[in-house]
Amino acid sequence: MRIRVSHTTRYDYSPPAKSAIQLLRLTPRSHEGQHVCQWRIGVDAQCRLKAGEDALGNITHSFTLEGPIQSFSVTVEGEVETQDTAGIVRGTVERFPPGLFLRTTPLTEPDDAILALAGEVRETLGRDPIAGLHDLSGKIHARMAFDTGATTTATKAGTALALGHGVCQDFAHIFISAARFLGVPARYVSGYLLREDGLVLQEAGHAWAEAHVEGLGWVGFDPAHAISPTEAYVRLAAALDYHGAAPVLGSRCGGGQESLDVSVRVEHARRQIQS
Fold first, then answer.
1. In 10 A of CB 104, how many CB atoms?
2. Which of 23, 117, 141, 145 is most buried, by the most CB atoms less than 10 A from its CB?
3. pLDDT for 46-66, tens place per residue?
4. Which CATH architecture fits 2-81+248-268?
């Protein structure tokens, strides 16, 4: 499958900001089941994009803007060829052993409700790790309602589970928190999803989790849909939680109210026919 992505983030400041710094994790890597055919990042302001990598091997770009800054936009466009690997992730950059991803973060700190959830799948996990992790994903999917207005990027896994509402970030954090408590290394993944319902325009990208299974390596689980990622997924970055894999992070100096508008378009790419 060939997927085309267009993702624009626009910032507006009133009054104008004096300066701004942005860190982007918006560039996917090629690996087994995912080949980046073309990809471009653009900023509609005078700046120098500095390419790099973070400690986990995610591709980053950073830039600084000097004011006065009334508005600016960051746009990524590209096409990725994907294949279904049954959720198994191979060929990715791995800088650290899986044990690093047993580390708890403030967003994934388990509370009593998450410990109870983990306890419900412990027996199945012991018999069959894949079945147990799918069971965990399914239970989260059943207990959570997708709701874009219920949580923020700072909402903790336990809080989201108590609310019973959240977005894909929250579903992933709950899965990660429970899996780590059960001794399974788990990490947060950001990316894009080509939706089955044909909805092309989306309010944001997508997020899911990966768990390390003995004998298989890293395997993806998407509790928001209760499946493992398929060829409809484009993988961007992986980290301990949202903060380490956020597509866009930034800060500014000065300025008053900040407004943010995000537009994501994910669709089948049209293949060019050569005559």
1. 14
2. 117
3. 999 999 999 999 999 999 999
4. Sandwich (2.60)
